[in-house]
Amino acid sequence: MPSTLDFTFAALADPTRRAILARLMAGEASVAELAEPFAMSQPAISKHLKVLERAGLISRGRDAQRRPARIQGEALAQATSWLERYRSVWEANFERLDTLLSDLQAGPGRNDSHN
Amino acid sequence: MPALTATPDGDRAIVIRRRFNAPPELIYDCWTVPALLRRWLLGPQGWTMPVCMVDARIGGTYRYEWRKEESGDTMGLTGTFTALDRPHRLASSEVFDKDWTGGPALVEIALNSVAGGTDMIQTITYASAQAREGALFSGMTEGMEAGFQRLDAIAAETPV
After folding, report:
1. In B49-87, which positions are buried (b, 16+ CB within 10 angstroms) versus exposed (e)?
2. Which of residues 71-100 of B touch A (CB under 8 A)?
3. Model confidence over A4-23: pLDDT tens digits?
4. pTM of the complete model beyond 0.90
């Protein structure tokens, strides 16, 4: 049984859904309003919105005609930690670079043969 | 431990800043020599770099391919150098294979000598504000995955 986090991963792994979230940060939007910049059909956008809703990242308004999508509060809170996650991936790279630089500066006879 | 900062700049760029205990020449080489690059530019844990080709001249291209061993997922990047001023500056324009952001990112790497080593300032300017959001989201999902792997390892009491 997939966990909530699995749904979140799946929701965010798709570039169109990420772009939808980015657009919704500027304010709520209807399916028609979201479909236009993506040149995508409304049913296709609706499928993406269902995934985002299941992940708890957006909610849908009750206005039967428009049902505007809006960002959920938790997603906004997560937004500020995106940069931190991005930073931590670069930090992993640079920690490896620190090790490599140590090895290179240790001089001949210390050939680091493992990857 | 030299602290890494990653800061948005304007609406399209991210500035990454980090100090290293090595001279600029060595950092520069670590960014341009394939045998060195593939030992550190790997992203989250579990990824290898089966392809790393660099033609280090103005207008020359570089090609990186990463592979996640567990799943077989791959990620590819192609770049073209626009500046190569060893040891203090290199610049390029690069794009991931799965680019949906409508354009390449411009990368500027400045390497300044400081007491004890190098102050590196890496500026990545994306094609649009939305492209930068996409990059941050990607960083988050991969970073979250790395974080969960560490949690799994702690739970199993095995070293990662």
Report:
1. beebebebeeeebbebbbbbeeeeeebebbbbbeebeeb
2. 98, 100
3. 556 666 677 777 887 888 77
4. no
